[in-house]
Design a protein that fits this description.
The complex is a heterodimer of chains A (112) and B (117). With 112 residues, chain A is mostly beta strands. Chain A is built from no helices and eleven strands. In chain A, strands 2, 4, 5, 9, 10 and 11 form a six-stranded mixed beta sheet that branches. A five-stranded antiparallel beta sheet of chain A has the order 1-3-8-7-6, with no helix packed on it. Chain B has 117 residues and is mainly beta. Chain B is 0% helix and 45% strand. In chain B, the strands form two sheets. In chain B, strands 2, 4, 5, 8, 9 and 10 form a six-stranded mixed beta sheet that branches. Classes of the chains: A mainly beta (112), B mainly beta (117).
């Protein structure tokens, strides 16, 4: 019940295309869902996050869509660029607690 | 530098040797985490320190793994009698719980790549 399932494991997208990464969770107590972006040789960094009281959050080309009833959330990268090539991790947590449950990661490659 | 730093960046060791990995968190961050990232795997939680509270060691995979945090700042992760399956990137993160509305954003270091031959 503590797992966060992430798919796909890897993704190749043409420049200008839309990248979509999906995550699903079981624990309905989770109320904070961040996405982290990791470039090779670097640690993950917070990209965008959402709470379940909204269905969508947009920051620039990055959008989180959240479906509370389905217990799913997804990251959409619009107009994907080669510089977006990285590994993306979704996570789930309970606000006020310390532990994040991370997905297994998606390696995104955007072709020039 | 205001970020989390880790050393060494790379460590190659022989099976059976002990290794120590170091993490310097962001100044003022009271919470510190260790994670393990294996090839093709997600971020595996290892241990969590928060202030003077007892650490959460629930993620340590075996008693060969231990960690300490001195003076509420620097942390050392020790792996004794290393095995080949210990080969991974070990990431450290720090956060400041209670700020940012309880969202507890974690700031990661660049990691230490451990290779056990």
């Amino acid at each position: 019940q503590q797992q966060v399932k992430q798919s796909p494991q890897s993704l190749i997208v043409q420049k200008g295309g839309i990248s979509i990464i999906n995550c699903a969770y079981e624990n309905t107590a989770f109320d904070y869902f961040p996405w982290y972006q990791q470039f090779p040789g670097k640690g993950p960094a917070l990209l965008i996050a959402i709470r379940p009281d909204v269905s969508e959050k947009k920051e620039g080309r990055f959008t989180i869509s959240f479906n509370k009833s389905a217990k799913q959330f997804s990251l959409h990268i619009m107009d994907s660029q080669p510089g977006d090539s990285a590994t993306y991790f979704c996570a789930a947590s309970i606000i006020g607690t310390y532990k994040y449950i991370f997905g297994t990661g998606t390696r995104l490659k955007v072709l020039a | 530098g205001a970020g989390v730093s880790q050393s060494p960046s790379n460590k190659v060791t022989e099976k059976g040797k002990d290794v120590e990995l170091r993490c310097d968190p962001i100044s003022g961050h009271t919470a510190l985490y260790w994670y393990r990232q294996s090839l093709g795997q997600g971020l595996e939680f290892l241990i969590y320190f928060q202030g003077n509270s007892a650490p959460d060691k629930s993620g340590l995979p075996s008693d060969r793994f231990s960690a300490e945090r001195t003076g509420g700042s620097v942390s050392t992760l020790t792996i004794q009698r290393t095995q080949q399956e210990d080969s991974a990137v070990y990431l450290c993160a720090s956060s400041s719980p209670g700020t940012s509305g309880g969202y507890n954003e974690q700031f990661f270091g660049p990691g230490t790549r451990l290779t056990v031959l």
